[in-house]
Design goal:
elongated, binds zinc ion, three-stranded antiparallel beta sheet, 2 helices, 30% helix, alpha+beta, 19% strand
């Protein structure tokens, strides 16, 4: 299971999805949390982590 978790972390850790236009943004976690990253397309800061529910 550990291996699986690592793979998931690598795939999803730094990828976020714009809530408005659904485009993917790759950025460091901390920057997104700090609100320093905005969507390239529409400029909103409403990003959510790319992850399964
Ligand atoms: Zn957007």
């Amino acid at each position: 299971m550990a291996k699986f978790d690592e793979a998931v972390a690598r795939k999803f850790a730094n990828i976020f999805v714009c809530r408005r236009c659904k485009s993917k943004v790759r950025a460091p976690n901390l920057k997104v949390i700090a609100g320093k990253v905005s969507c390239r397309k529409c400029g909103t800061k409403a990003l959510k982590p790319k992850r399964k529910k």
